[in-house]
Amino acid sequence: MWKVVNGKLIQTVDETRTEYKTRISASLIKKLKIMAEQSNSHISYLLENGFKNILSESAITYDKKNRPKDRVEFRTTCDKDTLASLRLLAKNNKLNLNDVIEASIPYIDQNNVKHANWRYRIEKE
To answer: What whole-number distance in Å separates Cα of residue 117 and Cα of residue 93?
Structure first.
């Protein structure tokens, strides 16, 4: 992200985002890559959109018996507040964060996802 400070453009780190590591299905990651290309976005923005949409739901239905067997480690970033709310949702529903992340993928609205260039935005101080 860029900021205008005293009339000069300065590159800064977006303090509202945090890195996290999770384990999700490799087949879902492939699906997310395709979705990201189609919507000219990044996987992290797609997931974040799904997180926000699933948080607006009143309940989550997830069958632990149907957990995917092809889970791999996946590192990405997300808005700090959204991730904290997602962790709380997982805890309240007695689920792992991985389960909630995978459950949020059908909630992704590709029409309202941040554009790939969002990280290069310019904000005024």
So the answer is: 35
CA 68 to chain centre: 19
Residue type, 2: W
The alpha helices in 13-125, defined as continuous H runs, are 26-38, 43-55, 80-92, 97-104
**Over the stretch 74-116, which tens digit does the pLDDT of each residue have?**
999 999 999 999 999 999 989 999 999 999 999 999 888 888 7
The β-bridge partners of 76 are 20
Please say whether the beta carbons of 31 and 103 come within 8 A.
Answer: no
**Mean pLDDT within 43-70:** 89
| CA 45 vs CA 36, 66, 81, 104: distances in Å | 8, 26, 14, 13
Q: Which residues contact 106 (CB under 8 A, 6 or more apart)?
A: 50
What is the reported pTM?
0.85
